[in-house]
Amino acid sequence: MTLSPEQLRAAMRAWTSGVVIVTAAHEGEKHGMTVNSFTSVSLEPPLIIISLQDNTHTRKLVERAQAFAVTILSFDQRELADRFAGRTPESQDRMAGIETETLVTGAPLIKNGLAWFDCRVKQSINVGPNTMFVAEVVAARGTGEGEPLVYHNRLYHRLAE
Length: 161
Known about the structure:
7-stranded antiparallel β-sheet, 3-stranded antiparallel β-sheet, mainly beta, 12 strands, about 160 residues, Pnp Oxidase, Chain A
């Protein structure tokens, strides 16, 4: 039996995750994308993993810069999640009008998120049509306060008590 991409996609809809935007900058060019393939690997050393499709502009910038930033989105940032997922047609330049700041690597962090991670690539691993980046977190901010944006079954949700 061969598993089809649609079968896997349907089963993965049961996985609930937070929503992050990965951004990168290289030689004056900035870009980013919404991802849910983000996880912590180790506290000492501080390592995280992201996975990006090889054909994306963000992946190419991360490869060139060898650095990226991750912003964990709040529930009020649903519009940004859609914009950086390419769901809004007027978002050709996804970074236009977005307030950002930088910490160590120069990768842009989106203001008003719940938390931020500034990262340097330690290793990249080709996995099918994707690249998995293992990165050292060189700076981080956030307290866990606020209402996270949650993604489940192809829709955004808020946490309920």
